[in-house]
Automatic annotation (TrEMBL):
Name under which the protein is recorded: TRAP transporter large permease protein
Localisation: Cell inner membrane
Family listed: Belongs to the TRAP transporter large permease family.
Keyword Zinc annotated: no
Record's keyword annotation contains Secreted: no
Membrane topology recorded in Swiss-Prot or TrEMBL: Multi-pass membrane protein
Keywords: Cell inner membrane, Cell membrane, Membrane, Transmembrane, Transmembrane helix, Transport
Domain TRAP C4-dicarboxylate transport system permease DctM subunit: from-to ranges: 13-421
InterPro entries to which the protein is assigned, alphabetical: DctM, TRAP_DctM
TM stretches of this protein: 7-39, 59-77, 143-166, 172-197, 241-260, 281-300, 320-349, 361-383, 403-423
Length: 430
């Protein structure tokens, strides 16, 4: 067996064994990279240390802590609640209206924070008690909110797109643009799925609010609605880069929370910064560990090795994409989104490019698969958030998410068959 093949075995088996022991993912990546270095006769502790540092020494990665901070400030400063209030004012009175509120609010909040966990926690905290009080089935309601939460990694600004772009050297701006249409499709798909779920349920139907009251609630959400316009408009016009957009988003959320809504006091800023720093440290440590493994993957030339194994599928881009998406679905059930990107994107993208698949399109599909994994057991990070916030058993939430999971898989198949849905908007907006 060649040294490259041995390195592949060390990488795949090592990750499975270390993850099976419950080891921290970042440490597992470092140890796996070290094992590959040993097999490749490239062992050098100084080189390992340099790769750890270079994994986080990246200007585009600065977007991650600031988008995380923006999400925390949105929740603490009342921005998220105003979005939900606005959605409820317009559609909350219809039968099953709180479900439509959850979908609309999820799409709007996704265009501000880019964090599935932050958006899901905000939606679940506010809407699940209201749904319980009005007699909504808790398992389906929790499943809907979890499904809405994973729109955040797709609609810009998206932290997973930032991480993917840095990891694979793909245009982050183009990735942001690629997520607009699929994100809206996800929202539309949830609406149809929720309408189907509503059959046979006797849910309350309220009286619509007067137009004056609706406009008043919408006006209260003005500053929240302005945030995505500033972020997307600034990037599209070239005023600032995606990294700078994250800084603008964080400072805008801080300004609105302190001086416009005045729902957050200066004394609360410290707690928000600490929460954002803790989340950032987890993501950055993963990026550092992934750089070690990624460097060794490049040295072992694993993408070309796998390309040789895949053989004829490289000549058929749609078949190759379908197979890769199936593999990623299986991976997504076992790994969180960020580790999936950091570990597998550098291996799979060169194979996709060799088959003639657009790298931006592949990035969108990669992140979409990983996002679906957030609501797929056994890991299902977003499912755990909803279960914890709503005090609902995890098996119940898993049952409730199934109709929406089927909808997302259908959208995934649609995008595999018709890649132009993603590619054409990117070409047009460029």
């Amino acid at each position: 067996m060649s040294a490259e093949a041995q390195a592949f075995v060390v990488f795949s088996v090592g990750m499975l064994v270390l993850m099976g022991t419950g080891m921290n993912m970042a440490l597992a990546l470092v140890l796996t990279g070290a094992g590959m270095a040993w097999v490749l006769d490239f062992w050098d502790t100084q080189l390992l240390a340099q790769n750890l540092v270079s994994g986080v020494d990246s200007f585009p990665l600065l977007a991650v802590p600031f988008f995380i901070l923006a999400g925390e400030l949105m929740n603490a400063g009342g921005i998220s609640r105003r979005i939900i209030d606005m959605a409820q004012a317009w559609v909350g009175h219809v039968r099953g209206g709180l479900g439509y509120v959850a979908i609309g609010a999820a799409v709007l909040m996704a265009s501000m924070s880019g964090s599935a966990l932050a958006d899901t926690a905000a939606l679940a905290t506010i809407l699940l008690p209201m749904m319980r009080q009005q007699g909504y089935p808790m398992n389906t309601s929790a499943g809907l909110i979890a499904s809405g939460g994973i729109i955040a990694p797709i609609i810009p600004p998206s932290m997973p797109f930032v991480i993917y772009g840095v990891t694979t050297n793909t245009s982050i701006s183009a990735l942001f643009i690629s997520g607009i249409v699929p994100g809206l499709l996800m929202g539309a798909g949830l609406i149809f799925a929720w309408r189907w779920v509503l059959r046979g349920l006797n849910l309350p139907q309220g009286e619509p609010l007067p137009l004056r009251e609706r406009l008043r609630v919408t006006a209260r959400a003005f500053w929240a609605l302005l945030m995505p316009l500033i972020i997307i408009g600034g990037m599209k016009s070239g005023v600032f880069t995606p990294t700078e957009a994250a800084v603008v988003a964080a400072f805008y959320a801080l300004f609105v929370a302190l001086f416009v809504h005045r729902e957050m006091k200066f004394s609360a800023v410290h707690g928000v910064l600490v929460r954002a720093a803790k989340t950032t440290s987890i993501v950055m440590f993963l990026c550092a560990g992934a750089q070690v493994a990624s460097y060794m993957i490049t040295l072992a030339d694993l993408p070309n090795l796998l390309t040789g194994w895949l053989g004829p599928m490289v000549e058929n881009p749609r078949l190759l994409m379908a197979v890769m998406m199936l593999v990623l679905v299986l991976i997504g059930t076992a790994l969180d989104l960020t580790p999936t990107i950091l570990i597998f994107a550098p291996v799979m993208l060169p194979i996709a490019v060799k088959a003639g698949i657009d790298p931006v399109y592949f990035g969108l599909m990669f992140v979409l698969n990983g996002a679906i994994g957030l609501i797929t057991p056994p890991v299902g990070t977003v499912l755990n958030v909803v279960a914890g916030v709503g005090r609902i058993s995890l098996p119940s939430v898993i049952r409730g998410v199934n109709p929406f999971l089927v909808t997302y898989v259908a959208i995934l198949v649609l995008l595999v068959v018709f890649p132009q849905i993603v590619i054409e908007p990117v070409r047009w907006m460029r």
